[in-house]
UniProtKB/TrEMBL annotation:
This is EamA domain-containing protein. Its main location: membrane. Coiled coil: none annotated. It is a multi-pass membrane protein. The chain crosses the membrane at residues 7-26, 32-54, 66-88, 94-115, 122-140, 146-165, 185-208, 228-250, 262-280, 286-304. It is found in: Cell membrane. PANTHER family: EAMA DOMAIN-CONTAINING PROTEIN (PTHR42920:SF5), OS03G0707200 PROTEIN-RELATED (PTHR42920). It comes from Sporolactobacillus shoreae.
Length: 332
């Protein structure tokens, strides 16, 4: 258990610095280019752990599983993380970190409708409190950054959908989160590379520029990768994406899924503090109130998860130790 909390601490630190690290090199790289580089590196770092988990699991790649990973990779890397990268360009790192952490909140209704999971009163309360926190941060009365906030929320919602896709995949194919992330990151990176090459085609590049999508036109692959930018790229790919997810899944193994989810509950509070010291981003009263509400909503959901887990365990134990009554058979 102690080892599990060490994993949680490292994962929280890496995830909480993700937006800050991206912000530091945002002017050096195209958002899509940076997305491709960091997830390709992350998938390579996760691969040994994923292969180890596959040994003896009975899982084998076939047409169905490959199509699944292509879809989950598209949802995660191509869709959600592209919106995430663009959000960091248009909004403060702390704002993106807080709003993106709410993906766990969006999972609640999605899990109910798509996975038929039980929707408890505590889960609903968690959802309401967290949404109130988001409203404080967005501050509709003084909404000056519609683009950045919209991109952050779209990234959070689509990442929550990716989480639902991942759960359905793990139930269907029988693999765990490490395998899910490693191969989804790899397929998503390759899909993104194909799209990058398409944007280099003359007529396509010209059309994208004509409709105002300059960031999606003629996207570079390795441009500006140098000794100067290498440290941040290594940190993003190896530490944030690779080791961050590795420690998160190792924490699940050492503790539980509910306990490991503390990573996303601590991040909304830690990321703005780090952004204040590293990037000089001020924490306004509205943001502070929003952080407190989101942390409150997260704690309610954690309590709800633990409560449901204990009830399920109690039911299993009661069933296991229930006396078995068998009728007697009389021979004639």
């Amino acid at each position: 258990m102690k080892k599990g909390y060490i994993y949680i601490a490292f994962s929280t630190l890496f995830f909480s610095t993700m937006e800050i690290a991206i912000k530091l090199v945002a002017s050096d790289f195209n958002p899509i280019q940076l997305n491709f580089i960091r997830f390709l590196i992350g998938s390579i770092i996760l691969a040994p752990l994923a292969i180890r988990h596959l040994k003896g699991s009975g899982f084998s790649f076939n047409r169905s599983s490959i199509l699944y990973f292509l879809f989950s990779g598209f949802m995660c890397v191509v869709v959600s993380m592209t919106f995430f990268q663009l959000a960091i360009v248009y909004a403060k790192a702390a704002t993106v970190a807080i709003l993106f952490s709410c993906n766990a909140v969006f999972v609640i209704p999605f899990a109910h409708f798509f996975l038929k999971e039980k929707l408890t009163k505590l889960s609903l309360l968690s959802l309401v409190v967290s949404v109130a926190g988001m409203i404080f941060i967005v501050n509709p009365e003084n909404l000056t950054n519609v683009t950045g906030i919209t991109l952050s929320l779209v990234a959070a919602v689509t990442f929550a959908l990716y989480g639902i896709v991942g759960r359905k995949g793990s139930l269907k194919f029988g693999f765990d989160g490490i395998v899910q992330s490693s191969f989804s990151f790899l397929t998503g990176s390759l899909e993104l590379l194909v799209l990058i090459f398409i944007t280099k085609i003359g007529p396509v590049a010209a059309w994208l520029k004509s409709v105002g999508l300059v960031d999606f036109s003629n996207i570079p692959v390795l441009q500006n990768v140098s000794w100067g930018t290498a440290p941040i790229l290594i940190y993003l790919g190896v530490f944030v994406t690779g080791l961050g997810f590795s420690f998160y899944f190792l924490a699940m193994e050492a503790t539980s899924a509910s306990t490991a989810s503390l990573v996303f509950f601590i991040k909304p509070a830690l990321a703005p503090v780090l952004a204040l010291f590293i990037l000089g981003e001020a924490i306004t009263p509205n943001v502070l109130y929003g952080i407190l509400l989101i942390l409150g909503g997260s704690c309610i959901e954690l309590f709800s998860d633990n409560r449901e887990a204990k009830l399920a365990e109690h039911t299993r134990n009661a069933t296991k130790h229930a006396p078995v009554h068998s009728g007697s058979v009389h021979a004639r």
